[in-house]
Structure formats: C-alpha cells, structure tokens
C-alpha cells in the first residue's frame, strides 16, 4: 500500500521534469556524423569519382538495392557506367560503406528522403554523386594505389618506391 | 409552466456541460499522461492541441459503423447506449451547488448505486453480443469485477449516510458544514475511491478492457460512434465518480470566498486529475487478485467501518 502511494508521488513529481520530446519538424535532432541515412557517392580531393566499380557494395548489400555497371576510361581508370540505388529497398545497414575499398560510398545523416511516388526513390548516379570528399577529406584511392593510370606511372604513388630494375644487381 | 422550463433548461445545461467535460477529458487525460511521462501529448491541432477532441470526434463519425455478421445484432447495438444512459441518469440526482440539481431525490445516493450497478450490463452484454472470445473474456472479467467491488462500494458509503442521516446529496453536503466527511470516514473514502476506479473500469482496474491481454476487451468488435459511446461513457463515469467523491467526502460546494459551483468544480477536477495520475502510475492486477482483495480485505474493512461508525453515531445520539 505504501509502495503504491510512493509510486504515485514519484510519477507526480515527473510533472516538474523536463520533457524529452524533440518536436521534430520545428526542432531538428542532432544526428552523429556517422548516422546511417541517405547514401551518397563521394569524390576524391582532386574532384574525380572515387568509385572504382568493384561491385563489393552490391555484393554486400543484403537487400540487393545497389546496381551498377563498371567501365574504364581511356587511361585505364575504372568507374561505374551507371550506379543506381533503390532507396525504397535500402535498409540503411551501412554494409556497402563498410565494404567499399575506396571510401566512395558513404552514408550521411540526412534521412528526409520521402517521396509521393515510389519510382522517385530510385537514385541514379547524378543524384548520388556529391561534389566533395565526404567523411574522409584527404583520401584519394588513385594516389595510393600502385596501379598505372593516366597521368601516373608505376611507382609514382604516395609512399611507393619506384619499381626495382629486375636486371640490375644493385640493391 | 415556468418551473417546467427551468427544469428543462437545467437538464440541457447539465447534459451539455457533462458531455463537454467528458469529451474535453480525452484531451486533458492525454496531456496529463504525457506530462507525467515527460512527453508533450497532442499539441498540434489548435491552441495547445485543444481541437484534438474535435478532430477525434470527426474521425469517429467518419469511421465505418460496423456490426459484425456473427454478432447478436440488437444487443450489440444496445450495449453502448446502456453505459451512456446509466451514467448520465446518475447525474440527475447530483447536487452541484445549492439549487443546481435536476432532481434532489431523497434516495439520491441509492439511485446512483443502482444506476452504476446497471452500467455493468452494457459491458457484459457488449462482450457477450460480440461473439468474440476476447470480448467474451472481457465481459466475463467485467462480471467478476462487478461482483468484487459492488458490495463494498455500497457499504463504504453507508458510513457517510449514517453520519448525514440521509441519502439525499444536498443533505449530505449540508451535514459537512463543520467537518468534511473525509476526516471521520477516511477508511470509507479510500474504499470508495478504489471501488470508484473499479466502477469506471479505468486503470489500474481496467481488467475488462486490458489492451495488453485482450485486444480491447469487451469493445474489441466495436467501431465508429458505438466505440465512441463506450469511450465517452467511461469519461462520463470518471466525472461522475469524481463528482461523487467531492460531494460525499469533500463537502461538495462548501468553501469560502469563491461561488459554490466553482468550489465544486475545483474539487471534481482535482479527483479527475487523480484518476489520471492513477492511470499513469499503477499496473493492472489480475482479476482474481481484485476479487481476492475485494472479498477478503475491502469487504471486511467496509463492514468494520460501518459497524464502528454506527456504534459511534448511536453513542453520540
């Protein structure tokens, strides 16, 4: 009986507690930078596409909402011919971001992507690509990858020695 | 002729005020519950969300008013009417302020008890006519609950009747000029409060409804305005029990400075708020636990209270 009265009193005291509700459309909540919202494709600091069309995100995606087609430019640099994410299927699990070897695909703290028409939730590459590098400002895959592409030969990457001359005896 | 018109006007005013308070309670309850749960509650429709009531009512009117094909049609339709009728009939004998009463019967309290006993029929019949196992279980529990609280509900009030020497509401209030009955009849007050919560079938004694166990209990199959009648009936019941508590134990309209009707409303709204606090705070017991307490604890206490009060009243006279 006493516990009942004690409960009533404690609940009554909640009248003087601050309210926890965030009145959403008027007052936006703070979302952490790593919040898993709308997916974007980022660019490297030079402005080129980061995506190398390796298909790892599409493979990792548990709901198969990513589809893309790889192609190469004349210098041998791989990029997606098209890149399509169906956000009506996406479950925002972030596996694509974890799978991405080049930090190209990233999830952002934006979740306001409602549409009246389901078809409008299918985002093409133009909708996905942003102009900046996203969460990793200095990273550029092609500058550290030991691959020969246009404008960069073998051994010219960062932290990479020039290729050894196999026929030379010198160390 | 003039008296008849005054009577009709009183009836209409009481009906209007009671139904509006009951409808407004939907908003009050949601806001208060939210306050005690650190939320806001409805605050979008109109100022402070006050028009939520209107929005809800309009919604209820536009819902499909469906009678299931397997239901006992006429009983199904009648049941929500009974709850409204009996609870509203109880208001006829309440004296809100000196002279403001529809009929100040000399058996007023008895009439209220009779009407509240009839009210449970709506729940039992509604549960039975729905031909739905959850509704039936709800109706069954309502019957069990009625058996457990109805007895000590009446007995807990007999102390008040003994002290006032009358069943009439105005006489009971007038007998509290020196001292509110809550002091000498504190046990009776507690017992009546518990019985009153059970009578209105509100948390913690919403056993017949029990959303978490029985879908919606006795009104699982009801929709539209029939559901609305149960809903408003419940709130009118809360108003009734709060009004009864303030009349029987807290001196009704008696109080300094302010006009009598204001005192009555202050006391009534205090207990309405307390009802909502109960809902915010307490969990629901099983219905066998309620029967257990009702018969083994509350009834002996009510009888003891009646005996002691009777003895003292006799000795003093």
Overview of the molecule:
- The complex is a heterodimer of chains A (171) and B (317).
- By secondary structure, chain A is an alpha+beta fold.
- Chain A is 18% helix and 14% strand.
- Chain A has helices at 2-13, 56-60, 95-99, 125-128, 141-144, and strands at 39-41, 66-72, 78-86, 105-107, 122-123.
- Chain A has a 3-stranded antiparallel beta sheet with strand order 2-3-5. Chain A has a two-stranded antiparallel ribbon with strand order 1-4.
- In chain A, a hairpin with a 5-residue loop joins strand 2 (66-72) and strand 3 (78-86).
- Chain A is elongated.
- The N and C termini of chain A lie far apart (89 Å).
- Chain B is an all-alpha fold.
- Chain B has one domain.
- Chain B has helices at 2-36, 52-62, 73-90, 108-129, 133-164, 169-174, 186-199, 211-214, 224-248, 260-281, 287-316, and strands at residues 95-97, 100-101.
- The mean pLDDT of chain B is 85.
């Amino acid at each position: 009986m006493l516990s009942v009265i004690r409960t009533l009193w404690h609940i009554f005291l909640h009248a003087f507690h601050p309210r926890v509700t965030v009145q959403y459309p008027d007052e936006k909540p703070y979302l952490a930078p790593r919040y898993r919202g709308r997916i974007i494709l980022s660019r490297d600091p030079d402005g080129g596409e980061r995506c190398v069309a390796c298909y790892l995100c599409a493979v990792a995606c548990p709901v198969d909402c990513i589809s893309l087609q790889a192609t190469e430019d004349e210098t041998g640099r791989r990029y997606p011919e098209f890149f399509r994410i169906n956000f009506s299927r996406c479950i925002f699990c972030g596996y694509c971001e974890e799978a991405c070897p080049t930090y190209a695909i990233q999830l952002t703290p934006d979740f306001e992507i409602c549409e009246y028409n389901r078809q409008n939730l299918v985002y093409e590459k133009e909708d996905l690509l942003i102009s900046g590098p996203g969460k990793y400002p200095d990273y550029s895959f092609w500058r550290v990858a030991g691959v020969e592409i246009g404008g960069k030969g073998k051994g010219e990457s960062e932290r990479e020695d020039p290729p050894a001359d196999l026929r030379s005896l010198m160390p | 002729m003039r008296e008849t018109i005054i009577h009709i006007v009183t009836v209409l005013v009481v009906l209007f005020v009671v139904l509006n308070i009951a409808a407004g309670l939907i908003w009050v309850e949601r806001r208060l519950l939210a306050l005690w749960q650190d939320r806001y509650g409805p605050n979008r429709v109109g100022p402070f969300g006050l028009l939520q009531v209107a929005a809800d009512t309009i919604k209820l009117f536009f819902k499909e008013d469906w009678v299931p094909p397997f239901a006992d049609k006429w009983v199904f339709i009648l049941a929500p009417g009974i709850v409204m009728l009996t609870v509203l009939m109880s208001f006829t004998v309440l004296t809100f302020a000196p002279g403001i009463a529809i009929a100040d019967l000399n058996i007023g309290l008895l009439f209220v008890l009779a009407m509240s006993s009839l009210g449970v029929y709506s729940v039992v019949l509604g549960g039975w006519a729905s031909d739905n196992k959850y509704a039936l279980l709800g109706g069954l529990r309502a019957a069990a609950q009625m058996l457990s609280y109805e007895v000590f509900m009446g007995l807990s009030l007999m102390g008040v009747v003994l002290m006032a020497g009358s069943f009439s509401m105005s006489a009971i209030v007038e007998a509290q000029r020196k001292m509110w009955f809550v002091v000498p009849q504190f046990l009776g007050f507690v017992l009546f409060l518990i019985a009153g919560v059970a009578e209105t079938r509100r948390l913690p004694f919403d056993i017949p409804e029990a959303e978490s166990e029985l879908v919606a209990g006795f009104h699982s199959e009801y929709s539209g305005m029939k559901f609305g009648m149960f809903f408003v009936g419940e709130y009118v019941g809360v108003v009734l029990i709060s009004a009864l508590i303030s009349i029987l134990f807290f001196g009704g309209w008696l109080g300094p400075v302010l006009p009598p009707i204001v005192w009555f409303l202050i006391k009534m709204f205090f207990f309405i708020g307390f009802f909502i606090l109960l809902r915010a705070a307490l969990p629901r017991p099983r219905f066998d636990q309620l029967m257990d307490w009702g018969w083994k604890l509350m009834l002996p206490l009510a009888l003891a209270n009646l005996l002691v009060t009777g003895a003292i009243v006799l000795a003093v006279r």
